[in-house]
Amino acid sequence: MPATVAFAVPIVQAPMAGVSTPAMAAAVSNAGGLGAIGLGATDVAGARAMIDAVRAATDKAFNVNLFVHRDPVPDAAREAAWLAALAPQFAALKATPPKALTTIYRGFAGDDAMLALLVETAPPVVSFHFGLPEASRIRALKQAGCELWATATCRAEAQAAKAAGIDVLVAQGWEAGGHRGCFDPDARDDRLGTVALTRLLVARASLPVVAAGGIMDGRGIRAALDLGAVAAQLGTAFVLCPESLADAGYRAAMVGAAAEHTTMTRAISGRPARCLANRFTAWGEGDLPAVPSYPIAYDAGKALHAAARARGEFGYGAQWAGQGAPLARSMPAADLIALLWQEAQAAA
Q1: How far apart are CA 287 and CA 47, in angstroms?
Q2: Going from the N-terminus, what domains does the chain have, and what CATH number goes with each?
């Protein structure tokens, strides 16, 4: 049950918004995998520039990823309480918190301009995180020739994706770094691991499945393929590549003791996301008011990180990483693809 978009090596680079780059995506695609860029945190102009940059560097298939969350309804009281709770953290950094929080970027669900750009540029693969767009958007992208992928964290989400016309499922296990792709962040999360979820969707979803979560080397890729996945998606494995936008503090944490400890937190962005345990996540485990909606809470998180980084403190960053973080290796993305596939073949 192969996907229709062809790539020679069954390795997908995760579309990590804020970390992956056009250079990374092109390098991965040129090396035989499927490279990706995350457009969820940018506007139409930024998205066009990124797509153009990938196309300038490769003639191979690549993936662009969108966040399909609903635009939040602001809640001034909730946001004021959150800023008040954060005030001592800003004060310790001799910084002033924002006076108010804003919706720092839109979801694809209501972004007509982004849809028009994607229809115009027709990336080979368009993938969705946090949910599914409405039928008219799916139809428009398919008519443009795009193959559509969607993250699923459970069987119900996979069934919804299939019914909507999605072509490929990305089975995101609990181990995965970054934001959980669950459609409703307030619903019960069964926290299915990558192995169980991949096998469940391969057996029951009747769509090609890409396994994602905790996969860091060739043996992990081979295991995913043996479970019936058509490919393995890796994100944390690429954080230390020179093409990554990870800053110095993030990179240092990835090669130090911090990599041994990840935690799922809402405190940084307002949605559950797996991050290296740091000062921000430790604060987020305290007795706090209700977190503002995503991505409004992220406005505060980004401001706190910027204030800390200006003083040489990187412990408030969104250092997204999966549970396999200690296995990360530092090398160019193309070299990593070659090594991963060599390891996977040796493990066959």
Answers
A1: 38
A2: 1-71+106-239+328-348 (3.20.20.70), 72-104+256-327 (no CATH)
